[in-house]
Every structure is written in structure tokens, then in C-alpha cells.
Specification:
The complex is a heterodimer of chains A (334) and B (344). Chain A has 334 residues and is of the alpha+beta class. In chain A, the strands form 3 sheets. Chain A has a 7-stranded mixed beta sheet with strand order 9-11-8-12-10-13-14. In chain A, strands 1-2-7-5-6 form a 5-stranded mixed beta sheet, covered by helices on one side. In chain A, strand 3 and strand 4 form a beta hairpin. Chain A is globular, with a radius of gyration of 19 Å. The two termini of chain A are 34 Å apart. Chain B is an alpha/beta fold. Chain B has 15 helices and 11 strands. In chain B, helix 5 packs parallel to helix 6 and helix 6 packs across helix 11. Chain B starts with a helix and ends in a 5-residue tail after the last helix. Classes of the chains: A alpha+beta (334), B alpha/beta (344). Chains A and B meet through strand 14 of A and helix 2, helix 4 and helix 10 of B.
Chain lengths: 334, 344
């Protein structure tokens, strides 16, 4: 029987990479298509970053945000990760017949507010309405253009042994919020999404040094997936220190109950940064002064051992591999 | 170094094989790198404590039989990826079968109540930990007069399995979750039969302490039992949970993947609730599945071989494309060895 698309193909792990390699890269390959968050395109006298992203999330409104805020943050952050100041966005809506107008209004309001927060204009759009049952509520696609800082050159292939790895705050919060908002587990915890636009945070880092090797936002698949992506793209090993990875206690508790690893829960307002050791402390200090990265932390370093793998120093002082990402996140049975 | 770590590291006596009988213990042992603390003469063996791993191929084929007849199959997540003879439930779902992941059997009952035009079956697998919830679900369904809800049961109980596994290890790390329900008296009975072990918690330091308690007791040369998780596991267990099982289910012989049929080690719905037994309700034929003959999951579950001894391990069988149940389940031995890079 021929292979069919399953939910695992959309989960951000190995199946997603296989899908991109086998189908999309095969047909779309060109010099500007890279594995980074946005393409950097040459124009006379300027470099522009260009990216697009589709958003489906259930429920559409959750503690700390809604799909509208998410759709702006996602694209703004993809541009920011290339060292590009986000300038213009377009948005396309696919709305299910019967969707409440007032919810749509709240979504649009959140989009406008978030775009204004980082000085971005939403200047083009499209609306389609699909029959009931053909989509789940509302799907949004945003496309963005940003102006690249000429001296900044972050890319997924540039991590080097000796680099320090920084996260800009506690991880796993968005994924945990969505799991709880679906109310499928009967667990109550006061967790809100970390959803936030991060250009100001990237700018604060670039003001310290332009020599930042990698900036990635840890969305679907979480920080763990980003670490494995970079280890593979740069051909390096990574050593993490479990005790230094910031995770809120309530997120830790939910993950403990369900058998989930916080490193693989989605974030929507967190960056994973690879920077030369000599700048790392100064970058962390700068980040801690900016909203949404007050809890920035060095969590590990790049090594030349075990290329493509992520080793974790555990709380009891032993070393173990961080399991590679893969498949749907499924809570354990008991 | 803690006293427990010192006891373990300084042990120089005869080899001790310790079998953990709980998938969560297995996972936590790997996650914390606990094996790296152990000297060569203390060996941890992964046993049959993962409900997904011990569920035979026949059961998956039965679930597929239902799904392919337009019946809504509700299940815990891990089971959707366990291979049947030809495919798994995820593959059936991607071609249109209604396979719905739920997080509690009561959610399946609620779904049945909201969708009276569908026949809804919950795949009831698991040990003493999860079976009370399935029993409660059936009681709720009966009380609500639901005619469209039933269970496909493959529930198992641990006590009889220890007898079958007794020669595989010098001591067991007894399952904390199951013991919360059963209490500890059964372990005293096992001790009298010469079978040793301790109940352990799930934090790294609790597991390390439990291993040190095994080492200390093993040195004395007598069968032993200690409850190293007393704040959570009580001698009397959870009488309410035991009572709901007794009200709705009855013991039956049960097939365990790798261990064969163990008499009286299963649970099925009793006469009062047989209207909720999917096998009877849908007059299901006897279905005999066929596992991949090269897969050595069965031997892994008995502690007779290590995952990396299986010819499929890490090659044809990996966490993205699992062949055997032990690679599917997040609590399975092969999955843990593969994910944490042991034997590669």
C-alpha cells in the first residue's frame, strides 16, 4: 500500500524532515531555499528576509494568547532569527462556516496589537470561507518581509565547538498551555502561553555582538528539536546541563504526570541561541534586561564529540543522551 | 556521594540481576542515567511491566476488525502505533477508520453519550493501575443506559506473572503505580515463595535507594521484601479501586506477548456486565494474529535477551518505524535502549 500522510508527518520530528526532503525539497530546490527560518534574498543595495508560516491550533483562544497573536509572533520570530527587522506581513484566513464573528474580531485585534508592538504593518491579506467540517474553526497563514542586518549572519550550519547555548526563558509553556486548554486530561494548572514577538530580544543580542552563530525560535517540536536540528546541520555535538534548563514547576509537574519531556513541548516566545563563549555572558545580561527574556540562561555548549547527538548531564551527575525527537507527542498509558 | 550510591558502588559480591517491572521505572532509569552508577555485578533487566508491550498481536487485529466495520475505536495513544499482523490503528485511521485517542475511559463513555448513532468501543488494556477506570466507565455506561458503549478487554494482573518470571532475576523492582492499588500483602506472599523485591518510587534518588536496599538484603541470603515507597504505597492498597474491579470483572486466562498464556492473569467483564463486552456484542470471531517472526520482543520481556541482540533493533525496527511493541511504547525496553543510544 502506498504511504499516507499521518499526524506524525506534522509533528516536527524525523517524519517531518523526511517529508520535506522527499517531497518539497525534491520539487522546490533552489539556492535560496535553506533549512533556516527565512530565506535571505539579495536586492540592489539591500538584503531582505522572506518567510511564511501556517497556523492551526485548537482551541483558537488559550491562556496567554490566541491564534491571531500566534500567527504574528511566528512569522515575526522567523524573520528575527535571521537577524532581520520585521517590516511587512500579509495574512490569509481560511474560516469555517459558522465561526463566531466576535471570536474573529478578537483574533484580528490581537494581530493588530502584536504587529504594532514590534513596528510591523499588516499590508495584504486574503479571506476564504470553507464549509462546515472542512476546517477546524480558523486557519491563518502569515507571510513576512524583514530587513536583514548586513553584519549579522546567523544560520543553522554555523554552530562551532566551544559555542555556548542560550535559551531566552523557561521552556515548554506554550505546549503545556494548549494541552491543558483542550481539557482532555482533567489537570488544572495556572499556565499561560509564552507567545511573544521577539525582535527586541534579537536586537538586544545583536547590539552586544553581530557574531552570533545561530538563532532559532523553538516552536513546534520545542527546544529539543531545535538542538537536534542544529547538531545535524552544523555537524557538531551538544552537551546540556539538565539543572540549568529553565522549566516552571507547574510545567514540570504536568510533564511528570503525563510522561512528556518539556524540551519537546512547543514554545512560541523562546529563542535558542548559539554564541561564541566570549560573548555568551554579556548576551545573557543584555537579554535579561528585555521583556520576554528576563529568565535567559546558558544551558550547555557545543562539542566536537558525538556529532549529531545531544548529551545531557543529569541531576545525579551521570550523562545520558537526550532522546531524538520523533512522532506525535503521546502521554504514557499509566 | 549518598549512602545509597556508596552501597551500590562498593558492592563486590555475587552478581545480582534486578528486573524492573514497571515501564515508568524503565524510562526513569534511562532518563537519569542510573545504569552508569552500577558496578558490573549489578545488572538491571527490563521486564514485562509495560501494558502496551505485553498486549499480543491478536488484540490489535481484533481492534482493527472493529475499526474496519465502522465501529469507533477509542484508545490510549500508544496503542495506535502497535503493529497488528498487517498494519496498525494509525494506518487504519489515515484511511478513514474512526480511531479516537482518549485520555480516560470515562472520556470514551462521554463520547458515546454525545454520539448515540455510533457504536463506541474502548480498548481496555493495562494492569491494576488503569483497569479501575475502565470498570468505572462500564458502571457509568450501564447507569446511563448507554447501548452504544463497550470494552475490548486485554487487562492483566501482575501477581501470577511473578511466578513465571521468578528465575529471570534475583530481585524485582516492584511497580509503584500497580502497588498503590494492590497494596503490599501480595509481595509478602511472594517472599514466602522465595521471590524477592522492593517497591520503589520514581524519582532518581528513590530508585537508587531501592537498588541499595536490594543489595543490602541480597547480601543476607534470605528472600526479602521492603516497601521503599511508603508515603504513596500502603499495605492495604486502594480498597475502593479493588472493589470496583471485583464488582465488574472476573479473572480469566490471558495471553502475554512473550510469556504465553498465564492462567488467571487476565480480567474480563463478569456476567452482570457482559452486555458491554465487545467480543460478545459484535459476535467477534476468534482472531489469530501473526507477529514478525524475526522480532525478539518476547525474549526481551522475559529478560532473556537485550534489545540490541534482536536482529531488527535500530535497523528495520526504530522508534519512527517500530516493528515490535517494545519499540512502540514510550515505556518499552527497546524504545528506551534506542532513544538513549544503548547498543548502537
Amino acid at each position: 500500500m502506498s504511504e499516507l500522510i499521518t499526524l506524525a508527518h506534522g509533528a516536527g520530528g524525523r517524519k517531518t524532515s523526511e517529508l520535506i526532503e522527499k517531497v518539497f525539497k525534491k520539487h522546490f530546490s533552489n539556492p535560496n531555499l535553506t533549512a533556516d527560518d527565512a530565506a535571505v534574498l539579495e536586492f540592489p543595495g539591500k538584503k531582505l528576509a522572506f518567510t511564511t508560516d501556517g497556523f492551526i491550533v485548537s482551541p483558537a483562544e488559550f491562556p496567554g494568547g490566541n491564534i491571531g497573536k500566534l500567527s504574528i509572533c511566528g512569522t515575526v520570530n522567523d524573520l528575527s532569527c535571521m537577524g532581520a527587522k520585521p517590516l511587512y506581513l500579509s495574512c490569509a484566513f481560511v474560516i469555517e462556516e459558522g465561526f463566531p464573528m466576535e471570536t474573529l474580531e478578537r483574533i484580528a485585534e490581537a494581530m493588530e496589537k502584536t504587529a504594532a508592538e514590534c513596528g510591523v504593518q499588516i499590508c495584504a491579506g486574503d479571506t476564504k470561507v470553507a464549509g462546515r467540517g472542512q476546517v477546524d474553526g480558523v486557519f491563518i497563514t502569515t507571510t513576512g518581509i524583514g530587513l536583514v542586518d548586513e553584519e549579522a549572519r546567523p544560520a543553522g550550519t554555523k554552530a562551532k565547538p566551544g559555542d555556548k547555548i542560550i535559551v531566552t526563558g523557561d521552556i515548554g509553556r506554550h505546549g503545556c498551555t494548549i494541552l491543558l486548554a483542550r481539557d482532555e486530561y482533567g489537570i488544572e494548572a495556572d499556565v499561560t502561553s509564552d507567545c511573544a514577538p521577539l525582535w527586541a530580544n534579537v536586537k538586544a543580542m545583536l547590539d552586544v555582538t553581530k557574531d552570533i552563530h545561530v538563532i532559532r525560535d523553538a516552536t513546534r517540536g520545542g527546544a529539543g528539536t531545535v538542538l537536534y536540528e542544529i547538531a545535524e546541520q552544523s555537524g557538531v555535538g551538544i552537551r546540556l546541563d539538565a539543572a540549568r534548563i529553565p522549566v516552571r514547576d507547574d510545567v514540570k509537574g504536568v510533564c511528570g504526570m503525563l510522561g512528556l519531556e518539556p524540551l519537546y513541548l512547543a514554545c512560541e516566545g523562546r529563542l535558542v541561541v548559539f554564541a561564541p563563549a566570549e560573548h555568551a555572558e554579556e548576551i545573557v545580561s543584555a537579554l535579561r534586561k528585555v521583556k520576554n527574556s528576563e529568565a535567559a540562561q546558558i544551558i550547555g555548549e557545543v562539542t566536537d564529540e558525538l556529532p549529531g547527538r545531544v548529551v545531557m548531564k543529569t541531576e545525579i551527575g551521570t550523562e545520558t543522551l537526550l532522546p531524538a525527537p520523533g512522532g506525535e507527542l503521546l502521554p504514557r498509558i499509566c | 556521594m549518598t549512602d545509597a550510591e556508596k552501597t551500590i558502588r562498593e558492592y563486590t559480591g555475587a552478581k545480582i540481576r534486578i528486573m524492573e517491572v514497571c515501564g515508568t521505572h524503565t524510562h526513569e532509569i534511562f532518563r537519569h542515567g542510573i545504569r552508569k552508577l552500577l558496578p558490573e555485578n549489578i545488572e538491571l533487566i527490563t521486564g514485562p511491566g509495560c501494558p502496551v508491550c505485553v498486549t499480543p498481536v491478536d488484540f490489535i487485529d481484533e481492534a482493527l476488525w472493529l475499526a474496519e466495520r465502522g465501529i469507533t475505536v477509542t484508545t490510549f495513544g500508544d496503542l495506535v502505533r502497535v503493529p497488528g499482523s498487517e498494519k496498525n490503528l494509525a494506518a487504519a485511521r489515515s484511511t478513514g477508520a474512526k480511531v479516537k485517542i482518549v485520555y480516560s475511559p470515562l472520556d470514551a463513555v462521554a463520547y458515546a453519550a454525545e454520539n448515540p448513532c455510533e457504536q463506541v468501543v474502548f480498548l481496555s488494556v493495562g494492569f491494576e493501575t488503569t483497569v479501575p477506570a475502565a470498570c468505572l466507565a462500564v458502571e457509568h455506561a450501564k447507569k446511563a443506559g448507554l447501548k452504544n458503549f463497550s470494552l475490548l478487554t486485554a487487562n492483566k494482573t501482575m501477581p501470577e506473572a511473578y511466578g513465571v518470571l521468578a528465575g529471570s532475576a534475583e530481585a524485582f523492582l516492584y511497580p509503584g503505580h500497580v502497588s498503590v492499588i494492590t497494596g503490599t500483602s501480595l509481595y509478602e506472599t511472594l517472599k514466602q515463595r522465595g521471590i524477592s523485591g522492593v517497591v520503589a518510587g520514581f524519582a532518581a534518588e528513590e530508585i537508587i535507594r531501592a537498588i541499595s536496599v536490594i543489595v543490602e538484603n541480597f547480601k543476607k541470603g534470605e528472600p526479602f521484601f521492603e516497601n521503599c515507597y511508603p508515603n504513596v504505597v500502603k499495605a492495604e492498597g486502594n480498597p475502593a479501586a479493588v472493589r470496583v474491579i471485583e464488582r465488574t470483572m472476573t479473572a480469566c486466562d490471558s495471553e502475554w506477548r512473550g510469556l504465553g498464556i498465564i492462567p488467571k492473569s487476565g480480567l474480563k467483564l463478569n456476567e452482570t456486565y457482559e452486555a458491554f463486552d465487545a467480543r460478545l456484542k459484535f459476535e467477534m470471531p476468534e482472531i489469530k494474529g501473526r507477529a514478525n517472526p524475526a522480532c525478539r520482543c518476547g525474549e526481551v520481556l522475559r529478560g532473556d535477551c537485550r534489545p540490541y541482540d534482536c536482529p531488527l533493533f535500530g535497523k528495520l525496527c526504530n522508534t519512527e518505524n517500530p516493528v515490535g511493541a517494545c519499540m512502540v511504547s514510550s515505556e518499552g525496553a527497546c524504545s528506551a535502549y534506542f532513544k538513549y543510544g544503548i547498543g548502537k
